[in-house]
Amino acid sequence: MINYNIQNISKIYKNDNSESLTVFSNLSLNLTSNQIISIVGSSGVGKSTLLHIIGSIDTPSSGYLTYKDDNTELNLLDCKDSELNEFRNTKLGFIFQFHHLLPEFSALENILMPAMIANKKRKNIESKAIELLKFVGIANRANHKPKKMSGGEQQRVAIARAIMNDPKILIADEPTGNLDSRNSDLISELFININKEFGTTILTATHSKEFAAIAPIKYEMRPNELVRLN
Hints:
Structural class: alpha/beta
CATH class: Alpha Beta
CATH superfamily: P-loop containing nucleotide triphosphate hydrolases
Oligomer: single chain
Order of helices and strands: EEEHEEHEHHHEHEHEE
């Protein structure tokens, strides 16, 4: 059971002239086990910034971020860098609009990367990576490098990589933004299957109404507001 409480967070940027730009203020969200949550909203409203803060890639200007599961309890704003790195690598999975695969490595090697960063030996994890390639429907691409794969295949490798370490939460920022409708539908189905098969909580920001529709819980992000739609 997880409980990730994002409470009253704000993000304010300041330039060299001490002028400030408020991206958003006092936003709150709670993530628990086995959810799919989508956030929609216009460009520039701060969806990506919010996801980056939740994913501990960025820090808020104010607010609280607390995470708890059966064996971990963290106040993320008080964590050392090493603790945040471990949190990101073991509790979270990330998928972005662009796949961010390492071009010099094969699909299988890219999927193995998070586990190897966690100091797991390849001989102990390769069979799992192969199973994930089957799960995302591209087992025949194991030894292909990214440039030899289509955009949809690249994104499926990125998804397999994101779930390699059995994350509690999968954070997806416009995961179908670069894909055609057929591949977008395949990715939507894959996200539903990840939630069903592994019980992974999925948080996604998207412009796509079709992709947002996979989520039983929907929010719209407006200036300084996160409004639940259902």
